[in-house]
Request: fold
Amino acid sequence: MKFPMFRLTTLFAVLLVTACRPASTLPVATAPSAAAADSIAAQVPSLKEAFGQYFRVGAALNPEHFTEKDRLGAAIVRRQFSTITPENVLKWEAVHPKPGKYDFRDPDRYVAFGERNGMFVVGHTLVWHSQTPKWVFQDRKGKPVSRDTLLARMRDHIHTVVGRYKGRIDGWDVVNEALEEDGTRRQSPWQKIIGDDYIQKAFEYAREADPDAELYYNDYSLANPEKREGAARIVRELQAAGIRVAGIGSQDHHKMDWPTPALVDSMLTVFAGLGVKVHLTELDIDVLPRPSGSRGAEVSDRFEARAELNPYGAGLPDSVQRALATRYADMFAVYIRHQDVIDRVTFWGVRDNDSWLNGWPVRGRTNHPLLFDRMGQPKPAFAAVMDAIRRSSEERQRVAPQVTP
Reply:
């Protein structure tokens, strides 16, 4: 199958940066006027319109997007996506950096952007072991606090943050990455100090703060059967305690060779049996060589930079573009097949230059994991995803019962 590159107008000529850059730093679109950005974005078919009958499609935003300093990125978001997630600004270290001190400047701008554009607004994330300041878990002498103290801090944080956006943020990643790869509980400070019920407590506090918000458990590598079962166990335990869980968030940080479509299909089938919706929350596909045997997305992983780990600094070869397009097409074929259980699919970033994979798990690399390149052009992978929805629609029409007059 041939995936055509979309040809945008000569407006891109004014966006090119100078060519005198290292090969490892590809050109990135500079700031056009708001009108030019909207004109560029409008020339590309819309994912949210194409998938509207199946599930929401969204992206993770950084402050450049929701303040519209990145005008082209913001225009792409408005054109393409119906739901947004904040990449970092609602994580504990950003919004609650010191005891008693909250900083809502960027979260307020993020929520306002979603409201202005009629989007489903997600909050990410309330309870996580990473990007949480040490003071949360320690007393003034640096020793672990008591269970009661940590529960009080958790409750204050959740009530303050969720309460501020009550009725404005539609759904929350309440607990993030509580599992090890084998499906057992991660021995985080939350787990060690509070115990097994810390997840239940977090959901209870979030429900108190906003009874109408959707509440999710979010994790990576859930296509791994052992970890999948661990996530299912968490949901069952919450349900048994009478706590309403709206969905499971599967981060879907994929590699080019893992997970297989069959594993993703199996994951979605199992989660459908829990009676909750599935949110593909952090979708991207890493095209670069793995520096280790890990297939997960453990944020603390760090490896030394080596030239052989950064082969596409000058651009993605056509053969890899085609392989990436095929990979996205295969994944979306599975997602479309499970449209009854999937509520949204959110890409972790807007353009390739936004992606966290440029700096993780090796700093300074040039990755190409998303549907839009650094210039804001849709890649062959974008065409492949749109083609997947076209083929699905044709198949539905083919098998639909014929109504005779």
Summary: The longest strand covers residues 277-286.
